[in-house]
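Field: COMPLEX_INPUT
Field: COMPONENT_COUNT = two
Field: RESIDUE_TOTAL = 343
Field: MODE = joint
Values follow.
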Amino acid sequence: MVFELYVEIGRVALIKCGPNKGKICAIIDVIDQNRALVEGPSIKDGVIGVPRQSMRFKHLQLLPYTIKICHTTRTKKLTAAWEKSEISKKWMESAISKKLIASERRKGLNDFDRFKLMKAKQKRQRMIRMCMGPMPKK
Amino acid sequence: MGKLWYIKNPSKAIAKTKTETVAKKGRTPKHYEHQKPNTRKRLRARKSNPTKIRSSITPGVVVILLIGRHKGKRVVCLKKLESGLLLVTGPYCLNACPLRRVHPKFVIATSLTLDISGLTSTKAIDDVYFQRTKMDEPKKEKQTDLFIADKKKFTLTDEQKADQKTVDKEILECLAKRDDSSLVKDYFKSLFGLSKHQYPHSLKF
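Field: COMPLEX_OUTPUT
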């Protein structure tokens, strides 16, 4: 198993637990073996920010995006680098982000919603099978 | 706290205690003249506390039954009866659950509410409606019981069957006003069940 994503200054990560769960941030500095200094800039119509704080690596999920910053850059420069690389846009378009939104939605379904979902899935399967039926078997 | 005593005529009670200051033979009296008898405690009448049902259950809420022969069925809660039980019905034409009383504890309230404000047929139904008349069974010898097969069973009266039909009809009328009425009808016909990775504490109803 070869690691593909590395902890580095400017690595973008997803926060897995705590009050900022689900938000993305950039690693600005490494404090010690377990902790990093992170900050997620808040952009006007985009993602909500994460205030500058130390965060355990175990609470972070590294993402395949990096921004070009020096260690411990100020928020202004961080935001500028973030917007230049269009991280927020890339994140919103990514599969992981969409899956997270979908799973949140699924948790919030009520009993009638779940019933409607089941019926919709059945209908879709029926349509797929109707198309598959007349296809010649290879 | 001592027992709360209920007294029908408080004035008579006060009169009684006043006369009790006379001592019985050889005994010290209960109260002396200068002491006021403790009538305050006695005068507190019992309060009637009507049963409270949780706020998620109101008339028109679709509810999942958890116990009984109709367990798993989604039914309509029509009203709360005086005994504290809920009056529910399938409707009978959709899932064979009749007009029935159900304990609110053994029920899950869903977020789906039907607008049954126009229902009039359920106003006359109360706890007395459900009381079964005792069937007169003549005392027979045990041996004869085994061979004679005509034991009286409970059957619905024609009136009760007619009531069910009118209630069903009214509920279907309320349903028809909705955009998703055909889906809701299918919803009533289906049963609730937990599948893999579904845990009641994390499900929203």
